Amino acid sequence: MKSWKVGLLFSEIGVTSIIERSQLHGALLAIDRINASGGVRGRPVEPVRYEPESVTQRYGELAEKMIVEDKINVIFGCYTSSSRKEVLPVVERRNALFFYPTLYEGFEYSPNVIYGGACPNQNSVPLANYLMKAYGNRFYFVGSDYIYPRESNRVMRNILRQGGGEVLGEAYFDLEAKGADFASVIDDIMEKKPDVVFATVVGQSCIEFVKAYHAAGGNGRLCPIASLTMNEGEIDAIGPEASAGHITAAPYFRSINSPANRRFLKSYEEKFGSTVDVTSCCEAAYSQVHMFAKALDETGELETECLREALLGASFDAPQGQIKIDPDNNHTYLQSRIAKVDETGEFVVESKVRRAIKPDPYLVFPAIHDWSFRTLKVAASGRENE
Ligand code: ACM
């Protein structure tokens, strides 16, 4: 039987392999579920996978290969914004459709991309408000040296400025940085004593940084590391002792105690044997594949314009709650939660917005004080109850 071929461009090797493997698993799980219930219009979805090894240029080269040699028109992939920027001109030139299931810095639109992760108005803005109220407004920025951390810090600096905050220091490191490379910046943090370290170090270097901070006496309960790129997979690799007290904002956390999330985690565990690496980016990949399949069921063809027409405005009951693709900008209405790592190494959701937030990738409406967050009553289990 003829299948619907889709490309998957996630790395299981290299510096971002932990998070990208979780995205790959999310996509593969969704494909399994779709095929188990009869596929799309009776035909199975067939994943075609290539391994970019976390090497930025490889993502663009492999996207080209998928489209030209394998005749694939729909691709899911990428974690870093630099790899997305490699794929972007390829899918635009070839008029393919690219699903990007990752939080990013915003300030981008392509008719060939469906953005499934949070942009700054859905994570940085609520996170900054929370941190300034709970900890204070003196921040220190530490990031990896590429577009996402630099742009994301630019946005964060503006938000802080509006809230009367200040940035005490700002430093960038290679994606391959090891613990010892952070020694002098950690010394500076210890000396300046900020209220919060806002970290945009990604992948393996995030793990190295958090461990080095802990080893130097950094304490998440006194001066937390707040990071949008520190997910369940990284926390598991860091260990509970060094990660306790640190904070993340994301649309989804594994600890959400809702029927939809329990079903998602059960099927994930059945397929992969454990849920340790389930992250917001994994959930975004899972949801994007489902939304694609629903659109394909409507159109019956993989042609970009038809699929985009069906996708814009479409909604989905995701494990995080209901989400919807915004027809204004191809980004996604997402839930927004803030969680802190507890003593056992699990994220405990501390607050959330009441409904999915409209994506505002260009921060046209940058009002920072009108977030209707509510503080959750955390159940005795320490997990978010919905
Ligand atoms: C990222 O580079 N968008 C995390």
The helix/strand class is alpha/beta
Task: Give the C-alpha Rg.
Answer: 20 Å
Oligomer type: single chain
- Record the strand order, biggest sheet: 2-1-3-4-5
Percent strand: 15-25%
Give me the CATH superfamily of the largest domain. Response regulator
Work out the number of β strands. 16
- The first-to-last residue Cα distance is 42 Å
In this entry the ligands are: acetamide
Low-confidence stretches: 377-382
Rounded average pLDDT: 94
Polypeptide structure, described:
This protein is α/β, with parallel strands linked by helices. The chain has helices at residues 17-36, 56-68, 81-94, 124-134, 147-162, 183-192, 204-215, 232-238, 240-243, 259-272, 280-299, 304-311; strands at 4-9, 45-50, 74-77, 97-100, 113-115, 138-144, 166-173, 196-200, 225-227, 247-250, 315-318, 321-325, 332-333, 337-341, 347-353, 373-375. The strands form 4 sheets. Strands 2-1-3-4-5 form a 5-stranded parallel beta sheet, sandwiched between helices. α1 links the parallel β1 (4-9) and β2 (45-50). α7 packs across α8. The chain starts with a strand and ends in an 11-residue tail after the last strand. Mean pLDDT is 94; it is low at 377-382. Bound molecules: acetamide. Residues 79-81, 102-104, 148, 202, 229 line the site of acetamide.
Topology of this structure?
Elements: E1 4-9, H1 17-36, E2 45-50, H2 56-68, E3 74-77, H3 81-94, E4 97-100, E5 113-115, H4 124-134, E6 138-144, H5 147-162, E7 166-173, H6 183-192, E8 196-200, H7 204-215, E9 225-227, H8 232-238, H9 240-243, E10 247-250, H10 259-272, H11 280-299, H12 304-311, E11 315-318, E12 321-325, E13 332-333, E14 337-341, E15 347-353, E16 373-375
Helix pairs in contact: 1-11, 2-3, 4-5, 7-8, 11-12
Bound molecules: acetamide (ACM).
